[in-house]
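Batch 3, record 17
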Amino acid sequence: MSTQLQQPLPSVAFAVPPALITLAVIVLSMLAGLAITVLLLLATGYRPADALPALWAGAFGGAHETAETVARAVPLVLTALATSVAYRARLWSVGQEGQLVVGALFTYAAAQLLGGRVGPFAWLLPLGAGALGGALWGVLPAWWKARRGVNEIISTVLLNYVAVYLLTYAIAHLCEKAQPTYLQSDPVPGGAWLPTLVADTPLNVGLFVALGAASVVATVLAHSAFGFELRAFGSNPVASRFKGIDSVRTTVVIFLVSGALCGLCGALQLLGTHQRLSLAVASGAGNAGIIVAMLARLNPWGVLLAALMFGALDTGSTMMQLEAGVPSTLAKAMQALMLLCFLFCELAVRRVLAQRDCDD
Amino acid sequence: MSIDNSPVLRVRHLTKRFGSFTAVDDVSLQVGRAEIHGLLGENGAGKSTLTACISGYHSPDVGDVEFDGCSVEIRSPADATRLGIGMVHQHFVLVPALSVIDNVMAATPRESLLLRPATVRTRLQALCARYELDVDPDAQVGDLAVGQQQWVEILKCLYQKVRLLILDEPTAVLAPQESARLFAILRTLAGEGTAVIVITHKLDEALQCDHVTVMRKGRQIATLPTQGRDKEELSRLMVGRVTATPRRQGVPGDERRLEIRGLSTAGGGRRLHDVDLSVHRGEILGIAGVSGNGQRELFEVLAGTRRADRGQIRCDGIDITNVGPARVMGAGVGHIPQDRFAEGLVGEFSVMDNLALGLHRTPAVSRRGFLSRSRMQALARSAISRYAIATRSARTPVHWLSGGNAQKVVIARELFHATRVLLANQPTRGLDIGVIEDIYTLLLAKRHEGFAILLASDELDDLFALSDRIAVMVGGRLVMVGDPAQASVEHIGHLMAGGGVAQQASRESVA
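Prediction for the assembled complex:
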């Protein structure tokens, strides 16, 4: 009755949907994005028949290309997982980039400290240090939010800047034998470099770290008591508080986990790709992770798929530029188009579902 | 009231569907120029949807609306305002941070380019004087008592000289005396030629109207003049059968299960002042009071989600003051919060998950930090059958459930772990009579088992039937009345309106 008036519209936010809908939405939005890309190519005078096969060949044309694509997807998987954990709890952190940078800083410091010792797993401890660094950087906004109600969007954005300036400062002033002119440090000791999986490609053991993280996050979210608390807290913090879920503790733990995943990403980037501190460490993987996570509807398995697609667009666009002359920045446009298409698909699916509920 | 006057509103064969659900099914009625017309029905009977179609919030699928003898199509609330239809919603549409004048201006279609607050003030003062309303036009709406905010809503309509005034459950926020005054004012308005529609589920109020249309499940059961009718007849029409509030039997024990001493909160919002109270084994203590007088705060402090600044709460001798909700639950206290969807349930979660909420770290549903699906399912199955929760499956999101079934989920969950005390804040608000009876029967069964039950409710009659003792909450203080058999509704109403305790500045005008 009066409930008819008060009933909120079906929330467009990130409710946990059945996996099939997730998959359908992702695939649909990819196809729609691709279709618009074709129109874009035609409008700008390129031939899709040349460009798209080149894009595909560049991404998955051979073992080498595929390895490159997967390697590009790895950091995105981690930052997108970090985003999923936070956003499922409706904590709108955008501090992934900063946490990643601080993670890389911690990793570098740990690698330097352990520099002399070269064991088969000399990269493990620096990796852990990276996770720790990211977690510490993540816990600051959580603490402010829980204690003082500071909006996490603002605090995390600001901390991103602080992190990047810390990185610049570290490179310029702290690193021994730094090369201030190039703004890059010495490389980390060779023993701490991540073992590669496919020769002559950037694909390294980071892949297993990412896959492991995805399965752990998926399991914890879906099956653990903590995952249950996280989802309940995100969906209705008031009811959760009434049922004994401590909002301070939950917020802090979520940011710790989210930060640790980003820190881990920074560590992998440093030990696997860059090997030295430079501004390239802040490569934008943190921000891209947010888009990937949204595209995956905050589902950890969906994150793997969406990250792979983004990696493919990155690698494939280079080939597209070489073969078909299409500017590689088109890849960025495609990513953005897919996100937009996704948002529309999401809305459409919600409408259909809401309609079906009414009809039942 | 004579019915020879030509109707100002005529609704013919109005039908409104949402998907395949028919909210209003072929309703026809007419309201005379000087008539108070009651719309009586349970929750979900279609009363609000019907008026929403008249006031432009919904457009009807079938049927037409005639206003002042002309067929009209009301497409938006603005159309309705232009015609002279005013609506007072159950949940007020006011801006708390603005003054009464500002709120009135915001609701009025602009007459000229400039706002003229001084003119508005003069006209409002005139209106207040005419209807003997005690509202300061310059007061900030957020500072007014809930009852006064209701007057502001009505002033908004009067200011626009509405021809038809629709009120949705207007007495939900009023003490009995205030309700009487409201009806007196409505009677004056009707005498001056303003038609009034009052939506209500209370039989007393329906009887104060000239005509009443009874609705049940979207259908119009009857439209009849109220003269010579009685409550029983209306109740039978409304529910379809004779109903009775279950009554308690036996006497409570002597043992104090819940003991509250000098409980005070000073934090933001409304406060509690030195609340003393004890509930015995096998006793229901009823709390009457206009909502917003500290009931919510009292229940929150007891449930552990709000801090007490002074005082002590003991459950069977164990101190549970400020120990947090988890340990309060652990002490055997169950809590049915006032707003089931906002505070009791996680809407997106399934029935099963909601039943496990709060138990998710106990062996009942989890093992070593991981949830056991089989245990959760077993728990859900037993709760669904034991409390007769109507749901398609245990995996249905709880926000798809009707209010009554959602409330049963809350109750099932709370009674799973509660062993000593049950805190029930408005457990039957907005529910169908059938479900209300079930809930009362359940409360009495728990009373019989030896629970100490604290029950706050708007329904005074029910409080009288169920409670071993009654107390009134006003301005954050608790006034004990005692045995309901010795007390009268008038006495309670007097206390609810602030008589008998030091008055709060904001409530003075109400008394």
